[in-house]
Amino acid sequence: GTPQKYDPTFKGPIYDRGCTDIVCCVLLVIAIVGYVVVGVVGTYPWAGGGSRAGFRPGGKRGGQLRCRGASCPPARPVGDRSGFAASRHLPVFSFPIQICVSKCPDRYLTYLSAYGSRGPAELEYYRQFCVPEFKNLQKPPIQVLKDKECPAMIIPSTPLARRCFPAIQAKKGVIMVGNETTYDDGRGRRRNVTELLEGAKKANVVLETRQLAMKIFEDYTVSWYWIIIGLVIAMVASFIFIVLLRFLAGIMVWVMIVMVILVLGYGIFHCYMEYAKLKGEAGSDVSLADLGFQTDLRVYLHLRQTWLAFMIILCIVEVVIILLLIFLRKRILIAIALIKEASRAVGHIMTSLLFPLCTFFLLCLCIAYWASTAVFLSTSNEAIYKVFNETACQFSGQTCKPETFNTSNVTKLCPDAQCLFAFYGGETAYHKYLIVLQFFNVFMFFWLANFVIALGQVTLAGAFASYYWAFKKPDDMPAFPLFSAFGRALRYHTGSLAFGSLILAIVQVIRVTLEYLDHRLKAADNKFAKFLLSCLKCCFWCLEKFIKFLNRNAYIMIAVYGTNFCTSARNAFFLLMRNIIRVAVLDKVTDFLFFLGKLLIVGSVGILAFFFFTHRIKLVQDTAPSLNYYWVPILTVIVGSYLIAHGFFSVYGMCVDTLFLCFLEDLERNDGSAEKPYFMSPNLKKLLKKTNKGQPEA
């Protein structure tokens, strides 16, 4: 805590500490070990019994991978017309004939015509579009089609997104496939190729999307270095803005306040002029009560009473703002002084501006591990095959094995039955508890992500606290304040960070669960359940916001005093409640400055990028690259500039919050005496008319 007697070598309360919340630290380590085990279980088939379905091809055919059974995505439909609208997300059994082929068919041909041809070439060509097990070319065509070993017909197709789609083209407004307007469906009927148009439309969507992606990729390849230059400009602009806040914060705040007062004054004047202009006009004296509710809101603008109400409301707001300025002027000056002091602190700890990159990198690791674990767990099931048939069969829906299905009793009792892929699943204990592992994966993601954010916050808070509690700034600061704060956080307060992030993770998991339930209940007609769910979502949203606010300030107190999480949260909360007006004023002033900074940086860089990439700057008109879509690099620069500005201002915001809490603690714990001197800057002491009696000023 605060020293009993002033010592010139004393550097504030941030160095006197011990380990906190050790139990939570142990729980975090155990949870991380369990998380690694879950990742291993989901990755290796021998650990979880998974077949790695969807990641392992079965064999080769025609020089390309041939998909078999559970290891194959829905294969390319080559025969029946119902398959041409295929989506790779549909189950395998939604298409009559499905195989992986080395190339798509290039001609019209039916199995009957191929079988009846004189030479074997046609049938050999056709056989590559049959199931791999089909070997008997002398088998009667009716039996082949009944057993669904070959498609009834094939048509000219083109490969697209690993699928074969009809080669549809338009000639003089006529839809054709392979220079034909009709085709034989293999069952003795002629069909119009327009029946394939629906599937072709979906294929065109995929093709257009692919072409769009290729053009966007081309734009990135020729403009990436200019994009980087734009982001560097945003970074420099963000840094300059933070530096200028030391000199311009007061001017910007007071200009904003004066502008608000002037705008409200003009609004009052405009309302009075409209009120006077309507005097004597027919129907303008009708009261709002007599007029009642009108859907056309413009009707109200023709009433004098409407403009009178607007004028009264604006006058009240104007008076309230002026009174607040009169009574809160000193608190506004304190907020401005703290913002200026934060700019000085950031200037002395320049490495803090780069620290968000470390937090971002750790968050990317958390996201990558969570995503890979989720994918591996979801695909570690075994392929389940079921019996499907068109007529009544006692074995319908039962599990089957494709390898032995043709020799089983099922085909004898139900000739039209087929053993087709149904879904991924399993009967083992691992598969039964797979949903639990997925839930644990989500929970650990939130816990670790919040822990990384907490580590970043307490590190920045510790660095800026070392600036505030340095009696002689910056001489009494440690050589490397950011690295010292990072080391203290990991060495002493890992448990406290785990505790705070655990509470937040529990609330976030509950919110995710409520969103999932809300999604499932959308089709239901239970209004009470929907109302209750909406109330719960609102309550937990508010709870999450409050916990984030409390955690942020608790981490600052942990960085300053080294107390455990609960003590720090309690002390921070009551400290802020005792200074609630100062908190509100500082919060609104900093929010305005950050909004203005982001608007200026993103807007200026975005406008510069627009003029550059649209060749409107004559000096560099020939330097700008030629693009398919100029909005691609412009949007990239705008989004990147916002993220950079947000990163810079998040550091600055943490600095302001830390200095503010240290300032409140300084006021409450110290009195300026020789035993308890103030640590605040000379500007703050001058503003508050405080002095350190008998001690040299910093």
TrEMBL record:
One Pfam family per UniProt: Choline_transpo
Membrane topology designation: Multi-pass membrane protein
Keywords from the named record: Antiport, Cell membrane, Glycoprotein, Membrane, Mitochondrion, Mitochondrion outer membrane, Phosphoprotein, Transmembrane, Transmembrane helix, Transport
Keyword flag Glycosyltransferase: no
GO CC list: mitochondrial outer membrane; plasma membrane
InterPro entries according to UniProt: Choline_transptr-like (IPR007603)
Gene source species: Dromas ardeola
Subcellular location: Cell membrane; Mitochondrion outer membrane
Primary location group: membrane
Role summary: Choline transporter.
Family: Belongs to the CTL (choline transporter-like) family.
Record-level Gene Ontology MF annotations: antiporter activity
Signal peptide region: none
Catalytic activity line of the entry: ethanolamine(out) + n H(+)(in) = ethanolamine(in) + n H(+)(out); choline(out) + n H(+)(in) = choline(in) + n H(+)(out)
Superkingdom: Eukaryota
Protein name (Swiss-Prot/TrEMBL): Choline transporter-like protein
Transmembrane segments: 21-47, 224-244, 251-269, 307-328, 349-371, 444-469, 490-510, 554-577, 589-613, 629-649
